[in-house]
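Researcher: Here's my situation. A collaborator sent me these components and asked whether they could plausibly form a single complex. I don't have experimental data yet, so a predicted model of the whole assembly would be a useful starting point for our discussion.
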Amino acid sequence: MSCSRILPLILALLLSGICSAADPGLDKIGSLGVQLIYATDGDATLAGEHTKPLEADKISALQGLPDLKFKNYRFLGGDTKPILRGYENWATPLKPSKEILVNFEPRKKLDGDRFQMLLEYWQGGRKILTTDPVLTKGKSLYLLGPKWRKGRLILEVKILELI
Amino acid sequence: MTEELFSKWIDDCLTPDEQVIVDAALAEDPSLIEEVESARGLGDLMKSEFPASQEPMYPDFFNSQILNKVAQIDREGAAKTAEKSSPWWARIGFAWVPASGLAAVLAFFAGTKVNPPEQDADFAAATELPNVYTPGGNHKTRVVANAQGEVSVIVVEGLDAIGDDVDFATVGASAVLPERYLISQQRQL
């Protein structure tokens, strides 16, 4: 066998060795969904024509929470990112805008589908809030955020999947 | 020779009296010096590999959690002290007055009709509320939990409003991105 055929084989073997020794901290242990919602008691079209209507079940969930009860809602954007075993990760719900970022990192696996996470809410390149809630898979945590266009921004964070 | 004495010997912290004991032990068993040298070598290796002190990952949040814990311990301590310092009849005080009034009201309503709890009643105090820390200082936060004690809403008041001219659909990347964001993106590439 010529050198030109052996070399790629050796490289492939070496690469497979490197891949198998990859950082276990980067293992995906679940996924986190982050959505941004515009809520207002006034005219929802102020959010802009690129926004989408919010699903009916989400509207009823939000209206069931006194602090999040508004007349109108619009869906601004969302992002789903893997939860890494040993590192933080970032969600950008308003892609391509990075005006709002959500940083998250797992802290502790609890019983059942519950996970304690460390969450950070960033706005305009500044960290606004850090919290360490216990999240249950499939259950939403809402953050009533800043004012915008005569309404408020609501951030929804939810564990979508646990591996 | 005790373990404590051995540790002090490794760290060169022996008192003159202790040094006499160590010298006697060394005369009896010269191999002890090798053990000490080996332990000192290991200590030096660790010092060279690990920093003497290290900032925690989230120092501001870490500090706020410690302060919260201290405040909680203070509150618990104060409550226990107050409990011990007064007899039970003094602790009740005049609590029987509103309690008896409440009992009368409850008896009245129980005799007429029983309503389902209102929506607000579902959001009772949580048993497992998260710590919330706002580095800006001017923000007020409130955590609302559902009936199961799971956190449902974090309300943040006092945030800077986002300019009405900002259109998220068209605006590009923010001018300043956190360094940690960039590191995280590079790590995952």
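Model: Some features of this prediction you could bring to your collaborator: Chain A touches chain B through 51 residues (CB under 8 Å). Chain A has a mean pLDDT of 87.
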